[in-house]
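Structure ticket #2291
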Amino acid sequence: MRQQAKRAETVDGGHSASTPHAPIVARPIRNYRALLFQSYVIGATLAFAVLFFYARRVAYFSFDLSFVRGLQRFHAPGLDVLMESISQLGFTPLAPTFVILTMLFVYFIGLKWEAVMLLFAGVGVGMLEVSVKMAAHRQRPAANLVNVFRILNDYSFPSGHVLLFTVFLGFLLFLVYTLTPRSWGRTCGLIILGLLISLVGISRVYLGEHWPSDVIGAYLLGTLWLALTIFIYRKGKARFFVHQPLAPGQPKTMTESV
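Resolution: structure written out below.
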């Protein structure tokens, strides 16, 4: 099984099976990237731990209030519609519908392990959100402090929208990048997913439904959960799904190309 996994990691022309259109990177560069990644994981874990510690003890930080008020000075009808539209994607029923339909689509095109990991990403981050919010017990911004577009009754830290977008859309972006051939459609898809992940944090603050520290904490925690999801995905792919096509219509491995 180990030998099969190694063979599945290489295709014709010196390309990687996990990223079929990217050349194999030299070991020193891989080691450098691994060091950067490990440093980020450690730094993000420590930063989230500190933020979580203080979020349990203070309703908001001084920079939270000043940032929200500064951002909301850019009030405009078109901007309101954009921010509300992005945030609406994270509420029921749109969010669970999108997660389920995406998972089913990926499963029925033959990428079963990817579908399982999308389910892990979606359900796992939901459970993570509830657990951390209950532990932090932080209230949302009050209407007498900032302009609140919608009154929500659950806790504020971390932002569930940002967690969902970072983990689920982040893993979907990873799959699109690694499993699909280069094309204008692929590029547009990557840009759209990247923009949604980036803008959802701004939208939650602009709408007065989260403090900036809620969003920062969610990005930190979300990237850590995303890293865990990708790690599990890569391990399972190399161990149990070495004969599964890399993408629909592209079942290339070393043994098949000979």
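Closing remark: The chain has one domain: 2-248.
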